[in-house]
Amino acid sequence: MLALRGAVRRPVRTALTTLGVALGSGLLVALGVITSAADTKVLDRLGQGNPLTAVRVAPAQPRQGQLASDALQTAAPHDLTDATLTAIRRSPDVARVVPIQTSRVSELSDEGGVATDWLIGTDMRQVHDLPVTLLAGRWPAPGSMTEVAATTDYLFKLHIDGDHPRQAIGHVVTLTSPRLPAGDAGFSQDRSYRVVIVGVVGQDLTDGDFIVPLEQERLSHVWEAGGAGGRQFPVGGSPYVGAMVVATSLNAVHTVRAELYGMGYATSAPEHLVSSVEEYLGVVNVVLGSIGSVALGVALLSIANALLAAIHERRRDIGVLKAIGGRDRDVLRWFLVEALAIGLAGGAAGAVAGVVIAELVGVAVNQYLVAHALGSLDLVGVPVVIPLLGWVGTGVLAVAAGALPSLRAAHLPAREAVVEA
Amino acid sequence: MTSSGAEVRLRDVSHRYGSVSVLDGLDLDVRSGGYLALMGPSGAGKSTALALIGGLDRAQHGQVVVGGQDLGRLSGDALAAYRRHTIGFVFQHFGLLDTLTALENVELAMALEGVRREERRRRAGALLEAVRLTGRGDHRPSELSGGERQRVAIARALANQPRLILADEPTGNLDTGAAGLVLDLLESLRAEHGCSLLVVTHNPLIARRADESCELVDGRLRAP
Question: How far is it, in rounded angstroms, from Cα A177 to Cα A220?
Fold first, then answer.
């Protein structure tokens, strides 16, 4: 009681000291949260099948130096077949393989015009393993023949602002798969059907207008392949235009790429980008840690200084406390509790501020990842233990900072009670 | 609520602050339950003698015995316990902690003794009533007059039922009316509690009210 009343005796001084402690501890808590989030949320989560562990495989031979680059370095075509995908799946470092197939379709506009669109077919059950971000609506149901997700490229065709993707939801499109029957050149056989846009996505798979269930795309592909082919309606070579191979962990990405290189396929993966993110987080950690340590150090010194000033002001009170029977340890406890109170108050404010700072940095990192179509990494949901440790730790440090001044107060002679003011 | 007053005996006590000799071979006695006024001019060593008897300081030379305890032989904690159990201080500057209420100031002395909260509150209320401050317990010292503050200090001095009350110029900061009331209270409570009372003053009118008085000059008792 005495300590708490003493702390509010000089409210401005106490408030400024507490603010300083809050600043220092807040930066350190932010550092702890970011470090923890980087370790547990980014790296651990990525290691269990996040898009950043995905390796994109192209139906082409790799060029020399492929493994030193994140980007595709393609040479001659190299068909990607079901047999190839099966072989890739056998690798112990591969968690999943998601094939990607494309086919060309025509779209009849309301005005009677014809536009060419590309369907990107994939396994909708594994869509979360792909570098695709749902911006609005939902994913097409697996196996659906009437639902599609439009890409942001397609929004331009609809004259919809990319900031308002929801406007495309519910739009009905008539698609047509053409082919040339063998021996009947000049007349195409068309297969038309209607689909509805149920979602809008940002994607980094391949060029295309719609992401559709593999079954829907495959039907178009089979229809095309059943034709004779021609200049206008070429029939694709490789059964798959690509595949996403998800490594078992972030550390396994390079190994998987090396295996695919050995199988003769060009690949791309954001392994260097991940390093960049880690470096970015590392720089943030160092900067915040340095500033936070200095700020906390200054704040702790300010606690010591505030206590010294308080002791100077209360020499007679200390003497009186001893005159009525207080022991050295009673005086010591008085000032240590005061230091602890300031530390805990500042630490609590710092813990809250630290979490807010960490969330803001998390949002920035998230935007960076989304901008690179690397999926959304939810950094929200800070582990409670970090701010809790920050709060308790600040209290302990405040007591440590207040120890010397408190000892000095404890050793003041009881005679101070009768010294002339 | 009675206690037997402590006997005080100082023998050949000398004390210096730096090069200044404050007490010089002082011999002083207060009988058990006695009421002694210690007079003298400023700088005569009155407050130092009071500090030595109250265990606020240790005599550099000589012997200070209070209630049979040789203070020179007590450890730091034992000296604190002595101040807690045996002594009740009343200061000229009142010595109240201004962040606490009147009731809390009185309770503080008992809290140091380890008295339970409910018991503290009950006894502090009774003591404030005894010094005629019923209803003023929730006031801070800054909200009380000088006389009221000194009465709170007296209540606090009596909190742990001391055997000796040491009052250092208890009316020095009070007007005549308040001073009279404070002295009346000190004397009546001394009689009621049966404790010894040593008042340091330079006021001859106060000294006349005591059972005995003596004068300190240059650190020694002036011969009668």
Answer: 6
